[in-house]
Design goal:
- This protein is an alpha/beta fold.
- The chain folds into two domains: 174 residues, FAD/NAD(P)-binding domain, CATH 3.50.50; 114 residues, FAD/NAD(P)-binding domain.
- Bound molecules: flavin-adenine dinucleotide.
- Flavin-adenine dinucleotide binds next to α1, β2, α4 and α8.
Length: 314
């Protein structure tokens, strides 16, 4: 007689995603003596950070890889467990959730979703090298300071880049818009931003050119063949959200595809929390970390109280 496989153990909490948000949540949960498993697909956006200079506590800068290594070490030190998995479904069941990745399943009373977003990059084989040396920069709030007084290009649909160009104008006198969409007008919302940007001295090159990379810097080859070279180019081509699995479980989304959460980081599904870039409008490590602290503390308060027994009463 064949036996059906045993149901996976019911955990206190599962954290999905091991970027700065998920790793911080795991550390907090373990320090509340909650059992906590981190399921992660291994592609944190923070891995792209060549050197961050705005992470609290790192006055001399820190690379994304090193930051993740330290945060993972901290979570492990307090007993967080990790498994490599790309979760494809979250289902409510009785008083908790069932998560699955293909045939594999896990169960927990609470779930913290920390799955981030993925940047859309220019279609080219060199983008990784260009990000690593700062020729391509993906987040002006993160690193425009490092581009101060240099030649900056802003690449993307005209409707999106005008406001970013204006923002970057407070870092450099040499900012140029590089529109990807020939024949387009900026659209109602962006007309004013474009006017202000132009008035502030932001240059505008003809749309529809191509980005190139020579190993150190990016250039924009215009439709007429003229080439302009920049110390840094910021592409604004959007990002893919990872909120779909939570939406499929019934969680409400904002208009821009991030998850709606309350002040305690709870989604519209009780017991399902969301933190970091998958939620935030300001995609920053410090925001992700703060949201993780709030969510983990809420999870701890939601779970049944467990009086501690034993110990050596130090
Ligand atoms: C080039 C660059 C430079 C940056 N510089 C800075 C900076 O200087 N300062 C700063 O504060 N911020 C910076 N950022 C932003 C920062 O990296 C993000 O805000 C931060 O990584 C968000 O953390 P997170 O934990 O929410 O998401 P992430 O770090 O993206 O982690 C999400 C994790 O979830 C996993 N995942 C996704 N879907 C699933 C799934 N279905 N199942 C299992 N796992 C899943 C992913 O593989 C990943 O490991 C920078 C970003 C880039 C790209």
């Amino acid at each position: 007689m064949s036996q059906s496989p045993a149901a996976p153990a019911m955990l206190d909490a599962i954290v999905v995603g091991a970027g700065p948000a998920g790793l911080t949540a795991a550390t907090y949960l373990r320090r509340f003596h909650r059992d906590c498993l981190v399921l992660d697909a291994g592609d944190s956006r923070a891995r792209w950070i060549p050197e961050s200079n705005n992470c609290p506590g790192f006055p001399h800068g820190v690379s994304g890889d090193e930051l993740l290594r330290l945060m993972r070490e901290q979570a492990r030190k307090f007993g967080a467990r990790f498994e490599h998995a790309e979760i494809d479904a979250i289902r409510r069941q009785n008083d908790g959730f069932v998560l699955s990745a293909g045939p594999r399943q896990w169960r927990a009373h609470c779930v913290i979703l920390a799955t981030g977003v993925a940047d859309t990059l220019p279609e080219a084989s060199w983008t990784g090298d260009a990000v690593a040396c700062g020729a391509l920069r993906l987040c002006a709030v993160c690193d425009a300071w490092e581009a101060t007084d240099s030649r900056i290009g802003v690449y993307g649909p005209l409707a999106d880049i005008a406001a970013h160009g204006l923002f970057l104008r407070s870092y450099s006198e040499h900012v140029t818009l590089l529109p990807t969409d020939p024949g387009s007008s900026p659209g109602d919302g962006a007309v004013e931003a474009l006017r202000q940007a132009r008035e502030a001295g932001v240059a505008l090159l003809p749309a529809g050119g191509r980005l190139e990379f020579d190993g150190e810097r990016c250039s924009y080859r215009g439709p007429d063949g003229t080439v302009a070279t920049f110390d840094s180019v910021y592409p604004y081509l959007g990002a893919r959200t990872s909120a779909g699995i939570a939406a499929a479980a019934g969680a409400e989304l904002t208009g821009d595809g991030t998850l709606v959460v309350d002040a305690g980081q709870t989604t519209s599904v009780p017991g399902l929390y969301a933190i970091g870039d998958v939620v935030s409008g300001l995609n920053q490590v410090s925001v992700a970390v703060g949201q993780a602290a709030v969510a983990a503390t809420r999870v701890h308060a939601r779970l049944p109280h467990v009086p501690r027994v034993g110990g050596d009463a130090r």
